[in-house]
Amino acid sequence: MTTRAPVEAAPGTSVAPRRHVLDLDDFSASEIHVLLDSAEAMREVLGRSIKKVPSLRGKVVVTLFLEPSTRTRVSFEQAGKMLSADVINVGETGSSAEKGESLLNTALTLQAMRADLIVLRHPHSGAPYFLARHLTSTAVVNAGDGMHAHPTQALLDLMTMRRHLGSLEGAKVVIVGDVLHSRVARSNAFGLAASGASVVLCGPPTMMPLDLLRPGGTPSLPNVTLEPDLDAAIEDADVVMTLRLQAERQAAGMLPSLREYTRRWQVNEARMSRAKPGALLMHPGPMNEGVEIASSLAHGGSSQIEEQVTNGVALRMALLYQLLTGTEERP
Ligand code: CP
Fold it and tell me: How far is the CA of 216 from the centre of ligand 1 (A)?
């Protein structure tokens, strides 16, 4: 049984080993910093012609994805394989989940097979916490749970910003769109606040994150503000992150119409010109081009979207390495 305690990184020191990664709300600035430094070293491995090191030989990683994914699942698989771990992919179809096996029994089965780590994507908020409470020897990484959290997406976003800006301290980051239902926005808000960035949440008032607000509507995190007007929000931004609009929100009556949403909250060339010169445009993907983001921008010079994907592999390598070896040292 693993006896390593959940982590609180002591300020100004290296970080203590962490057993699970469930969200960024308990990450300190120093823990984020150390992890991003390690991910930078992993990017160097990614640039080699032979992209494989033996660091995790003998370790078993299972990706258990009970919701669709391209970027997160493939990059975890690639990250594990590049570190020489054995990576086994389990999805909803083709597994006993299809026959009604519970999440806990599936996870206990994988643990009994001596999986060292389960990467879980699940439609229900809190599912990775549930597994972390019940598994005794297998680590859990949250790869997106319902509308709650997506910590590795936020970490790769922080990495992308830090690579370009040098530091996140004092950076202005605008997150635009359906913040209420976005696990990416929530995890980013925690990671950015811990890193000293100022965060502006922008979108339809019906899509603001009530759990990040105090009664009365004041944001509960330091340096987080709300601004429903995108033209005002984007002024002098260092980073503009737009989120996928989930079509079902319109059906649920949370939007006046898709046309109205696009008119008021699409990030386009005219709006980006209000941000700082050289500002970064980000999107976690998958995108609805022409809805939340203009196609010309999605594939234009300010777009970091493919860079985010590449950084995602390096970041997940660093995370797997740290969780499975208990150290942030480079391979
Ligand atoms: N950003 C993200 O989580 O994408 P996938 O759903 O493709 O993994």
Answer: 33
CATH H superfamily, domain 29-149+310-325: Aspartate/ornithine carbamoyltransferase (3.40.50.1370)
Locate 249 and state its tokens.
Answer: 């929100």
Position 3 scores a pLDDT of: 31
**63, 71, 243, best to mutate for ligand 1 pocket (most atoms within 8 Å of CB):** 71
Q: Is the pLDDT of residue 160 over 60?
A: yes
Instruction: For Cα atoms 210, 214, 218, give the angle at the middle one, nearest 5 degrees.
Output: 95
Give the residue range(s) of CATH 3.40.50.1370 domains in the chain: 29-149+310-325, 151-305
The answer to whether the CB of 144 is under 6 A from ligand 1 is: yes
- Ligand 1 neighbourhood includes 69 CB (under 6 angstroms): yes
Sheet bearing 172-176, strands edge to edge: 224-226, 198-202, 172-176, 239-242, 280-282
* DSSP secondary structure code for residue 303 in this structure: B
Name which residue sits closest to atom 6 of ligand 1, judged by CA. Answer: 69
| Residue matched to tokens 């030989």 | 57
Query: Could you read off the pLDDT of 286-297 as tens digits, one per residue?
Result: 999 999 999 999
Q: Is 177 in the pocket of ligand 1 (CB under 6 A)?
A: no
Is residue 72 in contact with ligand 1, taking CB distance under 6 Å?
yes
Q: Name, in order, each residue with C-beta under 8 angstroms of 205's C-beta and a sequence gap of 6 or more.
A: 228
Spacing, Cα 106 to ligand 1 middle (Å): 23
Find how far residue 147's CA is from the centre of its chain: 12
pLDDT single digits (tens) 31-82? 999 999 999 999 999 999 999 999 999 999 999 999 999 999 999 999 999 9
102-113 pLDDT tens trace = 999 999 999 999
Cβ atoms within 10 Å of 280's Cβ, excluding its own: 24
Residue 32 CA to ligand 1 center (angstroms) comes to 21
What is the reported pLDDT for 330?
55
Average pLDDT along the chain: 90
CATH superfamily of 151-305: Aspartate/ornithine carbamoyltransferase (3.40.50.1370)
Which residue has better confidence, 79 or 330?
A: 79
pLDDT at 246: 79
